[in-house]
Design goal:
It is found in: Cytoplasm. With about 525 residues, this protein is an alpha+beta fold. The strands form 7 sheets. Strands 3-9-10-16-13-12-11 form a 7-stranded mixed beta sheet. α5 packs across α8 (about 165-175).
């Protein structure tokens, strides 16, 4: 486990050192669980958002995007259930005075059991070598089966207790499992209580006339309240989707794991409006579609899995997560939820306005059902960043730290390096930069030996380096170096743009979906 913690610490320090993520208002000692994206982080984040938007909106002719306000009428949150039901189960340790999410404590306990399964697999793989059959081992090894059974039983009980709001049983489960406070190591726990996660604020010039508002805890409601506006103005026919990316805010008590769980974060959500009764097919279809999008980035099929929910939200009739293997284990990256007609029916009830769709084929009106896909942009950033950071041992007994970001998402696509700062090489390099910057983010770097400049670009995640040298003066060729393989090719100056474009073009990557 310590090894995983070390890996995660390296991810966090690398993100800061290379201009990806900084602690918010760090010069004032920062705010916990609030982060700023640096010059490279802002670019990577923008590229992930664009990769999602292109796949979701541009490539689907029946999905459109909106950008709704963060402030919404307070009754919105009454209708959505957030005022009454947007709670986390919290437990305090009496000795350390630290507060934890009760469900997370149990899930972390289960993660330790899953880590034991991984250990058994690693040991067996060493023992059996090439003849090792992982699937067979997982389904036949008694010790592994016992661990799996234990993990499933615990999660099932947790899910059922939370669904029934039986908080006493959640505490009993924590005690039975012998879970200790990570800080004090003590088992001296308070009862489990519910805590509402919405941030309150006020709208208005004077205190006595101000309206109590909330910062939105999700972006979905902005889509639901605009359902009719979009449907009518866009003359949309069911099934159709509305997509949105934007900030949401949750007063997370146990915000941790860097940008995995933050108080201010960004979501990328799409609500798909469908005919009642068709939700099962659409649920399966979107589960598959979304997984294909993730896999198109080439981050390894083994790093993803589906997790079907035991505990369903009050509005859902099916829900699954796409989980990703972060440095701290498999955790939720995206949710796919069949939300029935809960949202539109509830807003119809609270607003007194009809939120229905007239179906010309059936010649009747109905409240559409909704299928939701919801992904955290910051979590996606962490998945991409942590998966890409590797330390490689090279043949000449040296090592290099390289950020193998999918080239389509990399903040800077190419670094142009003059071999020396003389003989007209910087001028040619600068001219190339000026040509390429219309198509890509480019950096120019002339400081230090070329080997050190390569290492710097490897660490920041730049997929290509182009070196201008004395041969360039003779025959207008340059060396292009590929980040991942470190392979170098001699190519004509005129070919540089085309070679890079082919590797970083979103179209080429999105063909995979």
């Amino acid at each position: 486990m310590a090894n995983q913690e070390d890996i995660f610490k390296k991810v966090i320090s690398h993100a800061k050192e290379y201009g990806y993520i900084f602690q918010s208002s760090e010069i004032y000692d920062g705010l916990s669980a609030v982060y700023d994206y640096g010059q490279n982080g802002a670019e990577l984040k923008k590229n992930i958002r664009e990769y999602w938007w292109k796949a979701m909106v541009q490539l689907n002719d029946n999905i459109v995007g909106i950008d709704a306000a963060i402030f919404m009428h307070p009754t919105t949150w009454k209708a959505s259930g957030h005022v009454d039901a947007f709670n986390d189960p919290l437990i305090d340790n009496k000795d350390s005075k630290k507060r934890y999410r009760a469900d997370v404590l149990v899930e972390d306990h289960v993660a330790k059991i899953e880590a034991k399964i991984d250990k058994e697999v690693t040991k067996a793989a060493k023992r059996f070598g090439d003849s090792f059959d992982k699937d067979q081992f997982l389904s036949t090894n008694q010790r592994v089966l016992d661990y799996q059974n234990k993990a499933t039983t615990i999660l099932k009980r947790l899910g059922q207790s939370l669904e029934k709001e039986d908080l006493a049983d959640v505490k009993a489960l924590i005690e039975e499992l012998g879970i200790v406070c990570p800080v004090s190591g003590s088992k001296n726990w308070t009862d489990v209580k519910q805590f509402n996660l919405m941030f309150g604020t006020k709208l208005g010039a004077s205190a006595d006339t101000a309206t109590d508002l909330y910062l939105r805890p999700e972006t979905a409601q902005g889509i639901f309240v605009n359902f009719l506006n979009v449907q009518k103005t866009g003359r949309m026919k069911i099934p159709f989707g509305i997509a949105q990316t934007g900030k949401a805010f949750r007063n997370e008590i146990v915000a941790r794991q860097f940008i995995f769980r933050m108080r201010e974060f960004e979501q990328m959500e799409m609500q798909y409006f469908i005919k009642p009764g068709t939700q099962k097919e659409w649920y399966e279809a979107w589960k598959e579609k979304r997984m294909k999008w993730h896999l198109s980035l080439g981050m390894g099929k083994e790093n993803y899995r589906y997790h079907d929910h035991e505990k369903l939200a009050h509005y859902a009739d099916a829900a699954a997560d796409i989980e990703f293997k972060f440095p701290f284990g498999f955790k939720e990256l995206e949710g796919i939820h069949s939300r029935t007609d809960f949202d539109l029916a509830s807003h119809e009830k609270y607003s007194g306005k009809k939120l229905q769709y007239f179906d010309p084929e059936l010649n009747e009106s109905y409240v559409p059902y909704v299928l939701e896909t919801s992904i955290g942009l910051d979590r996606m950033f962490l998945a991409v960043f942590s998966n890409s950071l590797v330390e490689e041992q090279l043949e000449n007994n040296t090592s290099r730290v390289v950020l193998k970001l999918p080239a389509v998402l990399a903040p800077t696509k190419v670094a142009v390096l003059p071999l020396l700062r003389k003989d007209g090489l910087p001028e040619i390099a600068q001219k190339l930069v000026n040509e390429l910057k219309w198509n890509f983010n480019v950096v120019y770097d002339e400081k230090d030996a070329v080997g050190r400049r390569y290492r710097r670009q490897d660490a920041v995640g730049t997929p290509f380096c182009v070196t201008v040298d004395h041969q360039t003066l003779e025959d207008e060729t340059v060396t292009i170096r590929h980040r991942d393989s470190m392979e170098q090719q001699r190519i004509a100056l005129s070919e540089v743009k085309g070679i890079i474009a082919k590797e970083v073009d979103m179209k080429e990557w999105l063909k995979g979906i």
